[in-house]
Design a protein that fits this description.
Elements lengths: L2 H10 L4 E5 L5 H11 L4 E5 L1 H6 L5 H11 L5 E5 L14 H11 L3 E4 L6 H17 L4 E5 L13 H7 L6 H11 L3 E4 L24 H11 L3 E3 L7 H10 L1 E6 L1 H13 L4 H19 L5 H6 L1
Length: about 300
């Protein structure tokens, strides 16, 4: 599956490519099977925070498990958030991580310089975009502040939305895309990440809203497929409107992670039972929440 072509086709046809974060390595099999059985096209992905603080396994372990479960007509392997400055405000040696993912066969990568100044973010993103393009794969980056992964408490959601705290600037987005050549842009327009701290990760995620006019303006300014991180817990009406406005990829993590972890807890640690719960949940997300059952046919008919 050509990840660049799939996301561009999704944008052209006003549908979306979901990207499922497999926080625990055994989740991958269930998610991949659900994607195929719904005749959909979707990504499975891991982020640095998930192998540092959770149970996704290493870049290479995830790639090995993906190769065991992949279906080239339906699935794509993506490297999610590799931050330059992480959620604990520590600098990350990001370049070797990206190189490892490319060597392991990831079909697209993401560099996250969103905690940097605009100029620094542009410089880092340009470096990684060129690296990815030299390897023949697309690069995703982030501009603005999609909150939720920080180590400290997050402000109340209504305060974030009303004040447009961290929202991606239209003018900055235009410059960013022009100067980096990045393929996909993750934006902030009311979306938030799920909590990752051990004390809060099982809590219900705040129900986020989306500023659709902001998304539309960002797409018009950049003319590249936009990415919505923190897709769990957003009402369908906002998701559907955001897809029309310019979102072509949506990340889903909290919803499937909590389903799998609940299945483990309620079954006394039975992985097969947890996988079955996750498989069923993923099918529901694809067919009902996102409405992209048979997206393989819609994208490439």
């Amino acid at each position: 599956m050509d990840s660049r072509k799939a996301v561009l086709r999704a944008r052209e046809k006003n549908i979306v490519i979901p990207a499922f974060n497999v926080v625990h390595l055994p989740m991958l099999e269930a998610v991949a099977k659900a994607i195929v059985d719904e005749n959909s096209v979707a990504m499975v992905q891991i982020a640095r925070i998930e192998w540092e603080k959770m149970g996704s396994g290493s870049i290479e372990e995830t790639a090995k498990e993906y190769r065991r479960c992949e279906n080239a007509d339906h699935t794509i392997l993506h490297l999610d958030h590799v931050p330059v400055v992480d959620e604990d405000n520590e600098r990350v040696d990001y370049k070797p991580i990206i190189e490892r993912a490319i060597d392991a066969g990831y079909q697209s990568v993401m560099i996250d310089g969103s905690r940097l100044s605009l100029e620094e973010n542009i410089a880092v993103t340009l470096q990684i975009t060129e690296m990815a393009h030299n390897a023949g794969i697309p690069c995703e980056a982030e501009l603005g502040a999609v909150m939720g992964h920080e180590s400290g408490p997050m402000p109340p959601y209504e305060e974030i939305f009303t004040s447009k705290m961290g929202f991606t600037s239209v003018d900055e987005a235009n410059r960013f895309v022009l100067e980096t050549g990045v393929d996909w842009l993750s934006i902030a327009a009311g979306n938030i990440h799920g909590a990752v701290a051990a004390a809060t990760r099982n809590e219900k995620k705040p129900e986020a809203r989306l500023d659709i006019s902001q998304i539309e303006a960002l797409y018009q300014a950049t003319n590249v497929p936009l990415v919505l991180h923190g897709g769990s817990g957003i009402k369908n009406e906002f998701i559907k409107a955001a897809i029309v406005a310019g979102i072509a990829k949506i990340n889903i993590g909290t919803e499937i992670r909590q389903t799998y972890e609940k299945g483990l807890a309620e079954s006394g640690g039975n992985v097969d039972t947890a996988r079955q719960s996750l498989y069923e949940k993923t099918r529901i997300i694809l067919s009902d929440s996102l409405g992209i059952k048979n997206s393989r046919t819609l994208l490439f008919e």
